[in-house]
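step=encode ok
step=design start
structure_in=
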């Protein structure tokens, strides 16, 4: 390690547990793996959780890098470039991977016990800092407390930033935009309009510098009430479709009417068979689950577009066994699905007035609504299903990809979540799988996203949300 220009990054175990490809995400800079990290990877390789799978993938990558290398070559550092998946690209030059081939000792603060694994990593980092004062030695860890201890001990540390979808969660695509007050009046003469299958369409020139996306909602709050969905943008011309109004009780969905513009936009996408993926993001009480379930019931029981509704959610800890308690998979998941039961009660309260009618309705719903665990989704294919994934903010981008790729022909997936309530220890608003998929799908014409902001649960819940 004689290069004084390249930085030296020490990777903590949790970074590789979170993203095995982190080895290739530090460009031309070098990476150092302490022996303690290898020990912790070895301890975490068993099991069926996502973390265990990531550990095994990391071990395979390291094995490929170190394969057929002599001890002297390992001491000099091994090139990461030779197994990099994008090594044929123009910007593929990578640094080297170094291992702790000899004891690296430095004096730790007396307040830090030396027998802890994290403190061994800190000790290695401080020793490297003394050996290479000009290299910019940095500890990369997703553990906040580890970063605090590292700073207190005098070692520079950083979070793992490569998995961030956005710099700030406030930059996340909301799925809708409020039009200027006089937008319709100014552009009406330039618009081309026509009717097709009882829908009204418009064409408007937007130029090459437009900031609209497919299935983005354009809402007007003036007297004209012009609200539309961007269906297509081609050669600087946008095709808009007039939005259906579900705020009118005559056009309800399974007895549910939209209470505000945001819910109306969500229902437009939830009942649209041309939209394969819908993500609804919002705080508690905005109606995400109720709207999704109402749309699912109408399209499954009334219209027959889907043959079954599948409800699931991210249980924390995700991927671990759901237990050896007696009962089926559905019975074990029931305690996690309180939101489903609460909303079913709202949706079925008008479906029959006698006890017999209510029991018959409930029995019918139980046959068409299935509760599944995420733990057993891998390898499955769902055909003609309406899948509702609740608490999606607790999924990593890799877990989200695993689930969405389960969709077969005729299946619609609806992801619900609140990025302000993340329970997973190493996910943030900018790294969660929900943020990831919203950002990656915003240009796809068969996906739609709406951020719900206005609470509709009750005046008590709204006041508590604003003031507590």
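sequence_out=
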């Amino acid at each position: 390690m004689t290069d004084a220009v390249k930085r030296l990054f020490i990777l903590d175990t949790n970074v590789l547990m979170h993203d095995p490809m982190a080895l290739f995400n530090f460009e031309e800079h070098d990476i150092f793996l302490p022996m303690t990290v290898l020990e912790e990877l070895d301890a975490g390789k068993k099991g069926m959780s996502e973390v265990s799978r990531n550990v095994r993938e990391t071990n395979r990558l390291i094995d490929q890098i170190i394969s057929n290398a002599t001890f002297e070559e390992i001491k000099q550092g091994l090139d990461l470039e030779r197994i990099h998946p994008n090594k044929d690209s123009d910007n593929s030059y990578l640094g080297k991977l170094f291992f702790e081939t000899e004891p690296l000792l430095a004096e730790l603060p007396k307040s830090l016990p030396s027998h802890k694994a994290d403190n061994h990593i800190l000790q290695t980092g401080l020793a490297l800092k003394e050996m290479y004062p000009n290299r910019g030695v940095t500890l990369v860890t997703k553990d906040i407390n580890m970063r605090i201890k590292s700073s207190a001990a005098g070692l520079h540390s950083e979070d793992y930033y490569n998995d961030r979808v956005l710099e700030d969660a406030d930059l996340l695509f909301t799925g809708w935009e409020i039009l200027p007050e006089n937008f319709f009046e100014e552009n009406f003469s330039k618009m081309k309009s026509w009717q097709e299958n009882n829908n009204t369409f418009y064409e408007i020139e937007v130029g090459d510098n437009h900031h609209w996306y497919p299935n983005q909602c354009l809402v007007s709050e003036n007297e004209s009430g012009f609200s539309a969905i961007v269906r297509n943008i081609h050669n600087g011309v946008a095709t808009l479709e007039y939005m259906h109004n579900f705020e009118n009780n005559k056009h309800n969905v399974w007895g549910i009417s939209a209470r505000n513009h945001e819910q109306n936009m969500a229902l437009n996408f939830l009942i649209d068979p041309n939209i394969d993926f819908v993500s609804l993001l919002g705080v508690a009480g905005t109606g995400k689950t109720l709207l999704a379930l109402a749309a699912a019931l109408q399209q499954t029981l009334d219209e027959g577009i889907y043959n079954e509704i599948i409800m699931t959610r991210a249980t924390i800890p995700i991927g671990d066994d759901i237990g050896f308690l007696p009962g089926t998979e559905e019975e074990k998941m029931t305690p996690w699905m309180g939101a489903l039961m609460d909303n079913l009660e709202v949706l079925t309260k008008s479906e029959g007035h006698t006890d017999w009618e209510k029991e018959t309705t409930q029995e019918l719903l139980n046959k068409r609504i299935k509760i599944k665990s995420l733990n057993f989704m891998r390898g499955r294919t769902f055909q003609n299903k309406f899948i509702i994934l609740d608490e999606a903010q607790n999924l990593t981008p890799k877990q989200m990809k695993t689930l969405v790729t389960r969709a077969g022909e005729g299946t619609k997936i609806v992801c619900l979540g609140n990025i302000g309530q993340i329970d997973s220890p190493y996910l943030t608003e900018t790294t969660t799988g929900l943020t990831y998929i919203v950002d990656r799908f915003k240009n796809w014409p068969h996906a739609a996203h709406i951020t719900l902001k206005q609470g509709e649960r009750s005046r008590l819940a709204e006041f508590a949300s604003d003031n507590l």
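step=design ok
step=annotate ok -> The first strand starts at residue 8 and ends at 11.
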